[in-house]
Request: fold
Amino acid sequence: MKTRYGYAGIHGFDRQTGLNILLDEVHVDPSQWSLAPRYMSFALTNACELACPYCYASKIPARQRFEDILRWAKDLDAAGCFGVGFGGGEPTLYPRFAELCRDVALETNLAVTMTTHGHRFSDELSDKLSGHVNFIRLSMDGVGETYERLRGRSFPSFLEKLALVRSTARFGVNFVVNDETIEDLPEAAALVFGEGAEEFLLLPQTGTDGKLAMAPETLRRLKNWVSDNYERCRLATSAHGGEEIDAPMLMTSKPEYQTYDFMHVDATGTLKISAFAGEGISLTVGTSIVAAIQETRSKQSQMEEYA
Reply:
């Protein structure tokens, strides 16, 4: 079990089982807090074969260097990070993707997670990732005809890929909630947990400006569904969703400590406080990612002081 120190206390995490233990009664002096965020996401590439109409990911061609990601992962591991998440775009389009997951898993104590639409999964890819990826987040917006209309792929084919994902690693499902998918929410939840998912991540549709993009009635229905179901299954939501949904969910960040819980590196190699942030620090060759994290926090503190 790996241990980190922070504002919430002493936090232990086992990457194989996903077990978290938080000793929140222990006060940790800020000088001893782990420098890396608890979790760092990487957009490996902006490439994706799908054209979902609500996707906020950048469409500018970009791809990170293999050697940089592995070096940053080692630095994050040493600085107290618990895990890295690979996304995009579609991470399985990244050259040497399975090799990257293997090297990070073997050369660090980080949990390796990925977010994927799943359609590129095969027996060969599953074999290569097994034992090197700890958790897979599978994107599924709507079921049946809704899914096919929004994602342009066969839903029966998606279910076949879900079975491959399930055989590869522990998994959860990401579900974008918008005016079109809200009707499918109950059926989707039943399917997800019936297939053995450990988590159902609700992602209220968000625009490129980081603001929720759904009708007030859709948001009301989402709130009501979560209120009626959060005690029956393991639900989670995005930071934006957590601000709007008034129900106990999984651990969320305190806004003032956000950079100790989560940060993001986009496909151009720019460190940001989130995927929606417009600016960040470019991690040029040789740049220390831990130093860039500290610089980001310093700039954020200065902005808050002048606000």
In short: Residues 289-306 form the longest helix (18 residues).
